[in-house]
Amino acid sequence: MSTPPPPLEPVDETWDRALCVVAHPDDLEFGSAAAVARWTGQGKTVGYCMVTSGEAGIDGLEPRECRRVREAEQISSAALVGVPEVTFLGLPDGVLEYGVGLREAIALEVRRFRPDIVVTGNFRETWGGRNLNQADHIAVGRAVVDAVRDAGNRWVFPDQLTAGLEPWGGVREVWAAGSPQSTHGVDTTDTFDAGVASLEAHAAYIDGLGWEHFDPREFLEGFARQAGQRMGVALAASFEVFPMGFGE
Is the pLDDT assigned to residue 2 strictly greater than 80? Predict the structure, then answer.
């Protein structure tokens, strides 16, 4: 008989600004957009940063047109959960590699946005079973953790420090959404519908996947109820928390 997963602790929500950095349009909507809706509803400022535009994500669309469609869908999706700012870094979809270049691009966005919290996606090798994670997700998540540290060091990527831009070492934690090693959660019971709507806004992408009878609400509810059970609430989003303080 398998051991049930431990309870999820509520994340610390005593912050004002969060930057969400993920590989593709739709990554946030497959699980954590309802948490974003909760935070913006509390009056917090949340920004989105897409490392790619997901231009390799729809087999029936050539990349230039796919980029246009997916960027438009992401902007509309973000607005539904109260996020007015979406940045697209324009790195190539499907072939991202962890390295200095990726860290540099993300560090610049951290320095520009100056968040208290940075949210990314699961960057473990799997989703907790035999389903392997996608290479772009792993590369971006690893780079996010290191780029947050880079952003606070004046002597790392010093060429960025022009026109008044300064180092930013104020990120308290990085939260990886949907990690199989999640220890914390966010109650999304009251904002779940907004999260569903934000996923539904990616209609062209969902159609392009060819998933017959895919129901965004049913898909999201399955994971949200599992996380909710671990928090003692109806619905929740789960996160693995990485403290960014020295030696933590």
Answer: no
